[in-house]
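Dear colleague,

Thank you for sharing your sequence with our group. We've completed the structure prediction you requested, and as agreed, I am returning the results in plain text so they can be pasted directly into your records. Please verify that the sequence below matches your submission; if there's any discrepancy, let me know and we will rerun it promptly.
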Amino acid sequence: MAPTARAVLAGAEVVYGGARHLALAAGLIRGAARPWPSPLAGALAEIAALRPRPVAVLASGDPYCFGIGGRLGEVVAAEETLCLPAPSAFAWACARLGWPLAEVATLSLCGRELATLVPHLQPGARLLVLSADATTPAAVAGLLRQHGFGASTLHLMEALGGPRERVRRCHADAPLPELGALNLLGIALVAAPGARVVPLSCGLPDSLFEHDGQLTRQEMRAITLAALAPLQGELLWDVGGGAGSISIEWLLRHPAMRAVAIERRADRAARLARNAAALGVPRLSVIEGAAPAALSGLAPPDAVFIGGGAHLPGMIEAGWTALRPGGRLVVNAVTLASEAALLAACARCGGTLRRVAIERLDAVGPMQAFRPAMTVTQYVAVKS
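Please find the predicted structure tokens below.
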């Protein structure tokens, strides 16, 4: 620790930190040492209540890089704090591997599901992943093998920057050595032919979704996502979630995106959640219930998609009323009853209507011909 940090620590009346950190700095602490409780929220409330007494918080590396800094910012204003960061684990890792930090994806599996890695499994990409514990590297290697990335190189890095530092290398399809709990993974991804990769485009292949036929098909899904026009951090209501393809692709656009899928059938709601996990967005919130009643009490959305049931009384009105100003309502319909509801909504709220007809090449006996899919009428409106 630098002299400034030592002085701040010695002058603190109360010092919070993990048990490991408090033990390492025990000779420098003059005030009361308080290890983090579980859950952490109680300590945050204590820290807020201690203002303006001098309080120190111990954290390794950079507190604002997947660390405690963000949580502290929820209860104490930045201008009331002094942060003295050290190199982050990612900085140490890049220094050891010779990887430019700006060219790698930095991720954490501390308190996060393994499935969140899935969208980042791109051929030739490099990842730095903070492990939750000693079991994380083996779990990551298993995920890589499952998706056809078994030839990827794993750089196993332990206790970076300390006297117990160790860096080893192996492949994801090889046995992993025993590791300590404090470790980080550097992953150079290599995709085998046929590897399961989630494309970066809108309109994912239908084959990536488990479904029972209730699915917004690839071409129509791309058109629908374009109409929904997602912006960073926005919330989507996916009403009549089906297989969850719209809300899942919405979430894939950016890590800050949020979505709620409402599905009345229990089997489809369960399938929807499985699709979300398989495609790397387990944060999708799934509500089992019938709309529009199931929409009551939800946070106001920035966009609403209604993929079925537009003809039901109050369905379109519920979505339109809930939208924030500037929010987008997109409704797809294939039946005459739903088309009539869209015409009425367009007359009442404004917006635009379009009809989309898609034909796909298919076999007709020994010959081939284009077979038309059901024509979809799409209503798009922006709330002023």
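Summary note from our side: The chain has a mean pLDDT of 96.

Kind regards,
the structure core
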